[in-house]
Amino acid sequence: MSGDDIIRVCSKQNDYITAAKALGLSNWRIMYHHLLPNCSSIILVMAASNFASAILVEAGLSFLGIGIQAPQSSWGLMIKEQYNLIITDKAILALLPGFAIMLLVYAFHILGNTLRDLMDVKQN
Known about the structure:
The chain is mainly alpha-helical. Helices cover 71% and strands 0% of the residues. Helix 2 (15-22) packs antiparallel against helix 3 (27-64) and helix 3 runs parallel beside helix 4 (75-81).
């Protein structure tokens, strides 16, 4: 979802907003009963995707040596320290943090999509 999708769904020019104003509803009521339920699912999906992206960026920077340094733990730093073992019989030490990152990012995407499906106003 992009910012254009949020603007399209949460725009003041939508028909349901115009109809609510024609009924004489206050701006606060329109915001809480019409705009917020329609925008919340998109915002949750974008938040989950941003968390997943932040995890990937942090791991990538730590792998390159720009992120978290040695006394603290990071999955990117774990991959960097075990990188030389990939061609040996102990490759699992380098692959496990990568699988953990993959599963966590996948879990954030699944969580965001599930919350979107649960909170979708059009399906209820």
